[in-house]
Specification:
Strand content: 5-15%
Shape: elongated
Distance between the termini: 34 Å
Low-confidence stretches: none
Order of helices and strands: EEHHHHHHHEE
Mean pLDDT: 86
Strand order of the largest sheet: 1-3
Structural class: mainly alpha
Number of strands: 4
Number of helices: 7
Largest sheet: 2 strands, parallel
Amino acid sequence: MREERAYLRIPGTKTHELPPLLVHSSAAGEYAHGILDHAVTIVESEDMLPPVEDPELVEQRKLDLAVRLAEQYRTLVSHWMWGDSILEWIRQCEITFESEATLRELLHPDVWPHAGRVSFVTLLIDKSVGGREVALEEAVGLRLTFRQPPPIDCFSNQFLFYLNSTVACKAYEAWARLSRGVAGLFPPDRFHFEVFNLR
């Protein structure tokens, strides 16, 4: 059930055109090179498998775990790319808001990234951007946490399997909590923009 939203009142009836959201998902490939080999190293170094007599079975299980770790890392990088694209889009939207008198007063002039910018993320969610494949809060939380995606060997298997979503969500929640006192959210019916996935 969706929580009750408090939307800002924007004078007039005009639908405001915002810059397109350009998602740079193709850049995720830069981080994919050799990740399976690194994932195998993580499996071996963290002693993730119990002792088994059959060496072929051990190798198969090791490879299965490494493939799962590599997939978790690819998902993390993909989400980070979404978060990075969203933060860049917010910067572009700020320029648009500054250039329109009707919108100028809606943004606090604090040093970026002021948490009041969470209204832009909520606008994306209200517009169903990313669908079910991308949790936008997690994506932004990952980008707020990491300036760039760390290599796979910087992460533990526990982080990749269990903790990354929690860390990203907590980062986003902490950032969003700072926005208390912001007047409200942007009404989705008053804004239009395109989303382009640059593969």
